[in-house]
Amino acid sequence: MHWFQDHQWEVWLGVAVLLMIAEMATLDLIMGMLAVGALAGMATVMLSGSYVVQAVVAAIVAIAMLGVVRPSLARRLHHGTEIALGNDRVIGLRGVVREPIAPLHVGRVAVDGEIWTASADVDIPAGTPVEVLEIRGATAHVRAVPGPGAEYPEYKEIR
Q1: Which residues, in sequence order, are CB contacts of 132 under 8 Å at separation 6+?
Q2: What sign results for the dihedral spanned by CA atoms 119, 137, 88, 116?
Q3: What does the alpha-carbon distance between residue 154 and residue 144 come to, in Å, rounded to a whole number?
Q4: Mean pLDDT, rounded, for 71-76
Q5: Strand, coil or helix: what is 5?
Q6: In the structure, what pLDDT confidence band is assigned to residue 156 with cuts at 50, 70 and 90?
Q7: What is the pLDDT of residue 1?
Q8: Residue 61 has pLDDT above 90, yes or no
Q9: Which residues contact 142 (CB under 8 A, 6 or more apart)?
Q10: SS3 (DSSP) at 79
Q11: What stretches of the chain adopt beta strand conformation (E)?
Q12: Which among 92, 91, 127, 133 has a CA at the least distance from the CA of 107?
């Protein structure tokens, strides 16, 4: 116990380092905020030799970091565009009908270099530009969209 009294700032630094190592394993920013509290406890050693004062300062700083800094930092780090994977990546893309589509008959569309089975609520002839609205199983549900020079009859979507 005598060693801890002589090396208080080293103990706080060791705790901070261990918490940062734990933060690297979890990446949830909680252990990092606690490590900042431990560093505040280390800085308090210079001002006060009391263990209670050091612990209180470390606790106050850690709680403040968890309540004030972590939410905004987490929001900033986790904010970004979502990456569409799998079949969801074609939703919103445009393609061209290769085989005619009818409400009760699936056809085929070329989307993003792939051929998809496609369904629609209206008749869509071959060669019509379409947009993928959703994926149902392995079938793309599409709607016709006007394209450059596209000539096809007006349609009305059924919902």
Answers
A1: 90, 91, 92, 93, 94, 95, 109, 111, 116, 140, 141, 142
A2: negative
A3: 10
A4: 89
A5: helix
A6: very low
A7: 62
A8: yes
A9: 95, 97, 101, 109, 118, 119, 120, 124, 130, 131, 132, 133
A10: coil
A11: 94-99, 107-111, 114-119, 129-136, 139-144
A12: 127
- Least confident range from 25-34, 66-75, 82-91: namely 82-91
How far is residue 128's CA from residue 101's CA, in Å, rounded to a whole number?
10
Which residue type does 110 have? A
Do 91 and 135 form a contact (C-beta atoms < 8 A)? yes
**Pair of tokens at residue 143:** 């709607």
Q: What is the CA radius of gyration of the chain?
A: 31
Taking the chain, what is the end-to-end CA distance rounded to the nearest angstrom? 76
* pLDDT tens digits along 90-141: 899 999 999 999 999 999 999 988 999 999 999 999 999 999 999 998 899 9
Surface-to-core class of residue 61, CB atoms within 10 Å of its CB (0-12 exposed, 13-18 middle, 19+ buried): buried
| Higher per-residue confidence, 64 vs 6 | 64
> Residue 108's closest CA among 89, 124, 90, 122?
124
5's CB contacts (< 8 A; 6+ apart) are: none
Q: Report the amino acid identity of residue 135.
A: I
